[in-house]
Amino acid sequence: MTDRYNLPAGFRWGASTAAYQIEGAVDEGGRGPSVWDAFCDRPGAVKNGDSGREACDHYHRWPEDVELMRGLGLDTYRFSLAWPRVQPTGRGPVNAAGLDFYDRLVDGLLAAGITPLPTLFHWDLPQALEDEGGWMQRETAFRFAEYASVAADRLGDRVPAWITLNEPFVHMVYGYALGIHAPGRSMMLDALPAAHHQLLAHGLAAAELRSRGLDVLIANNLTPVRPASDSAEDRAAADAYDALHNRLFTDPLLLGRYPDLSAYGVGEDLHGSVRDGDLALIAAPGLDGLGVNYYNPTRIAAPTDPGLPFAEAPIDGVPRTHFGWPVVPGGLHELLLTLRDRYRAALPPITVTESGCSTDDTLDDTFRIDYLAGHLDALARAAADGIDVRGYCTWSLLDNFEWAEGYSQRFGLVHVDFETQKRTPKASYAWYRDLIAAHRAKAAAL
After folding, report:
1. Which of 82, 178, 289, 291 is at 20 to 30 A from 119, Cα to Cα?
2. How far is CA 317 from the centre of its chain?
3. 21 is in an annotated binding site
4. Which residues does UniProt mark as catalytic (predicted)?
5. CATH homologous superfamily of domain 12-445?
6. According to the annotation, is 135 in a ligand binding site?
């Protein structure tokens, strides 16, 4: 394969996973219960009654999975630590067996020539903390900082960069506002303190990581927002949605302030959750990278529901994933240009920390190959426009437990038979492997 993408010579190729989606072994090794364990036990909460109780059994099969990564030639593996595997109740005593597991995984990755890029929180809050209020409580942010320090003390000698949070927007909206993800609360706009407390947790954890000489990133789901028409009403609705989805979790980090949420009837204190000094801590200099999780744009029209200042409109005339999401690779280029123009010198280097698609259960996944090719084209155009893009982590290495959709959606480069746990690389695995090799050869020849 010829590398047609004009990406920087030092560009890093990766793949991503998350602990609850692949590890399994929820009752082993001293792990405590998480909000996802409890949510999966609710009748009707997850499609087909599925759970992550076994998932991909990565907890036992990680050496096989590292070999799959070695076969791809990955530079980076983005994964997450399960907080309840490290601290079963989210505070206090540390579970040595849990840290031992991540120790072995990190050493195995390094032996394979792969740099670990761990995420500290990918939605699996210890249930004990949720019982005390979860992310609606300010105290959870301080418990997260303690957990970050424990993980960094054990692994920081071999892991140079850390992602604090994954997709705080999605976790707040799906988990606390709409109730379709764990912990399953339906609070609508009353959930906004969960946004601030997650960002405060980032700031507190970032201070712990920086004090140990480690690099700090955060990853969020971002979307280019398009008005459904040029009408003033649609444009105002699009601005309101952009403030909630994108700016609520990026402006505080890079500008030190929250966006205007007056369209939602919400003040700058986010229902009283913001205290003096919080925003300075969240925006503390030194964010070493912004993780961008991109899946699709969002088209917004004037509201039809009096409870919200926007309505989502369909994006027609484009392919759709098995999930039903529109495939718009150019949206990634559009999003990165928006970030550059909005934040300018404050924008740190970009790593695409998630980008991928669900397809039908087939090994000949040419749809996924086309998806990846289109998004890498878009990323290369962003690089040509002067945006500092450092890497791309496709979602996902393995077919896995896809949250409320259970095992009905497959995002992996590697097919997993969930009955036998047999791993089988798909056509996209070979394509991605050959692309990485071609890029590496091209860089070596320069």
Report:
1. 178
2. 28
3. yes
4. 167 (proton donor), 354 (nucleophile)
5. Glycosidases (3.20.20.80)
6. no
pLDDT surpasses 90 at 3:
no
312 appears as a binding residue in the annotation: no
Q: What is the pLDDT of residues 23-48, one digit of tens each?
A: 999 999 999 999 999 999 999 999 99
Name the amino acid, one letter, at 316: D
Q: Which residues contact 308 (CB under 8 A, 6 or more apart)?
A: 264
The string of pLDDT tens digits covering residues 356-408 is 999 998 999 999 999 999 999 999 999 999 999 999 999 999 999 999 999 99
Q: How far apart are CA 377 and CA 371, in angstroms?
A: 10
The pLDDT tens digits for 130-162 are 999 999 999 999 999 999 999 999 999 999 999
Domain borders along the chain are 12-445
Q: Which residues contact 68 (CB under 8 A, 6 or more apart)?
A: 397, 414, 423, 425, 429
Strand (E) or helix (H) holding 145: helix 139-155
How crowded is the C-beta side of 205, counted as CA atoms within 13 Å? 29
139 is annotated as contributing to ligand binding: no
| CA distance linking residue 172 with residue 188, whole number of Å | 10
**175 neighbors 184 (Cβ within 8 angstroms):** yes
State residue 171's pLDDT score: 98
Q: Active-site residues: which are they? A: 167, 354
* CA–CA distance, 169 with 192 (Å, rounded to integer): 10
Residue found by looking up tokens 């399953």 in the block: 184
Whether the CB-CB separation of 67 and 113 falls below 8 Å is answered with no
Across the chain, which distance is largest between two alpha carbons, in Å? 60
Residue 395 marked in a binding site:
yes
Which pLDDT value is given to residue 203? 98
The structure tokens listed for 329 are 């690779």
Q: How far apart (Å, rounded) are the C-alpha atoms in residues 208 and 286?
A: 12
pLDDT recorded at residue 430: 98
CB neighbour class for 8 (10 Å; exposed up to 12, middle 13-18, buried from 19): middle
CA 30 to chain CA centroid, Å, is 26
State residue 32's pLDDT score: 98
Cα angle 434-288-96, degrees, rounded to a multiple of 5 = 85
Of all helices (H) and strands (E), which one includes residue 395?
strand 389-395
- CA pair distance 285, 163, nearest whole angstrom: 16
